[in-house]
TrEMBL record:
The lineage of its organism: Eukaryota, Fungi, Dikarya, Ascomycota, Pezizomycotina. Transmembrane segments: none annotated. The keyword Transmembrane does not apply. GO terms for molecular function: oxidoreductase activity. The keyword Cell cycle does not apply. Residues 1-17 form the signal peptide. Coiled coil: none annotated. Substrate binds at H131. Residues 40-304 form the NADP-dependent oxidoreductase domain. This is Aldo/keto reductase. PANTHER family: ALDO/KETO REDUCTASE.
Length: 339
């Protein structure tokens, strides 16, 4: 039924998307302003709702031009207040948001992107990502999987969001390599970026290189690894106390956090550290000034631990990252972690 309806709509509105109203005023589309995604952005996952507005405003006025948001973070309204309060023009800010798993069906997706745009107060997005390659039944309790929507269906829906001018670019997040390939084979509007977990403890260098070869930007989430208090993989110390990183930091007269972020930037990924603290926000930005030698980069590469910190696959009952380092173990096994 839905398929027939979509086909009919397509016949009647062949050059447009399946969406009813043209969403965004054409004059709001940026011509000049920001071109590509900036190497460092402010992350907002788990940012305190009461603090993220100030953090966003502070970051933008300090020199950030990139905000990483998502519908599911449930703080886009406050993040939007910060964007509005900053001195930057809309066209000089790169704003990313993400389609939640419960919103993969076309009508849900359109409602969700409008809600994110409206909460962020931005008129349009620069980048809209499929947050996970997983679809939930809308409004279902307990994240029931929606077998009726594939990631290819969802990609088609997202292409429609570009045509309707809700977003300049679309992309993916948390995809396995085979799923990236599947999208590349069928896309008309192809992904601009892939946002996934990568940091010195989960380097995935081959996967990062693969994205460079196919022309997809990599946005590195959790670039400071296990500094996030929600992560608990039994590592004996946080990355900021890791002797390799305190050593490098001392050598360069910077903080360990700056060194770790600088590594992410130097390997060509975009890093999106979250912070609501002014001092950290300012410090993180200065990672742009640090450089490593080839030898130092090789030493860091050797210290990869292949430890994934974010994997809800077991909770959702879906295998994730199955062709990458440290995939979902559905049988209850967890990999022993040793440093
Ligand atoms: C989207 O923007 C383009 C370029 O500004 C414009 O030509 C087109 O008509 C717009 N589409 C919709 C559906 O508003
Ligand atoms: C190290 O950094 C601090 C703070 O940025 C600065 O005050 C100091 O002069 C630096 N020392 C050297 C040796 O560069």
């Amino acid at each position: 039924m839905t398929v027939i309806f979509s086909v009919l709509l397509f016949l009647f509105f062949p050059c447009n998307s399946q969406f009813s109203e043209p969403a965004v005023a054409v004059e709001q589309q940026p011509g000049a302003g920001i071109k590509g995604i900036p190497s460092i952005g402010l992350g907002t996952w788990l940012s305190d709702k009461g603090k993220v507005a100030h953090a966003t405003e502070y970051a933008l006025d300090l020199g950030y031009h990139h905000i990483d948001a998502a519908w599911i973070y449930r703080n886009e309204d406050q993040t939007g207040k910060g964007i509005a309060a900053s001195k930057l023009h809309r066209k000089d800010i790169w704003v990313t948001s993400k389609l939640w798993n419960s919103h993969h069906r076309p009508a849900e997706a359109e409602r969700a992107v409008k809600e994110s745009i409206s909460n962020l107060g931005v008129g349009y997005l620069d980048l809209y990502l499929m947050h996970w390659p997983v679809s939930f039944i809308p409004n279902s309790d307990g994240n029931q999987l929606d077998k009726s929507v594939t990631i290819l269906d969802t990609w088609r829906t997202m292409e429609g969001l570009v045509r309707a001018n809700y977003t300049r670019h679309i992309g993916i997040s948390n995809f396995a390599k085979v799923d990236v390939e599947a999208i590349l084979e069928m896309c008309t509007i192809c992904p601009y970026a892939h946002e996934f977990e990568t940091h010195p403890y989960l380097q995935q260098q081959e996967f990062v290189d693969y994205h460079r070869e196919i022309g997809l930007k990599v946005i590195a989430y959790s670039p400071l690894a296990n500094t996030n208090p929600v992560y608990n993989r039994g590592l004996p110390y946080g990355i900021l106390e890791d002797p390799l990183w305190t050593g490098l930091a001392e050598k360069k007269n910077v903080t360990a956090a700056q060194a770790v972020l600088a590594w992410g930037i130097q390997r060509g990924t975009m890093v999106i550290p979250r912070s609501v603290k002014e001092s950290h926000i300012a410090q993180n930005l200065r990672a742009l000034e640090i450089e490593f030698t080839k030898r130092e980069m090789e030493d860091i590469a050797k210290a990869d631990k292949k430890v994934r910190l974010s994997n809800p696959g077991k909770k959702w009952g879906v295998p994730l990252f199955h062709d990458l380092d440290d995939p979902t173990m559905l049988d209850g096994e967890t990999k022993a972690v040793e440093l």
